[in-house]
Write a structure and sequence with these properties.
By secondary structure, the chain is mainly beta. It is globular.
Length: 85
């Protein structure tokens, strides 16, 4: 299986190009922001810069899942490891 990439610009080195998808995290999975958004999901996706290796984040609207194709979607926990491993 290939990798999923997205065109982005790095906030660290300024590189613009195809960043590799690392995974996505539901910030409210354990109720961390429940007081603010209730029971809804709040997702953040992580992408790695091909130039400097920095990790860029993409925030998704509350209640919406990341727009990453199912075959590439990976849910990660607070520690950055895949859930279920």
């Amino acid at each position: 299986m290939g990798k999923y990439t997205r065109l982005m610009k790095c906030s660290t080195c300024g590189n613009a190009g195809e960043f590799t998808y690392i995974g996505s995290r539901n910030v409210n999975r354990e109720g961390d922001v429940k007081e603010i958004i209730g029971e809804k999901e709040m997702w953040i996706s992580y992408f790695r810069c091909p130039s400097c290796g920095a990790v860029e984040v993409e925030f998704h609207p509350v209640g919406e899942k990341p727009d990453v194709p199912k075959e590439f979607f990976v849910e990660v926990g607070k520690d950055g490891k895949r859930l279920g491993e």
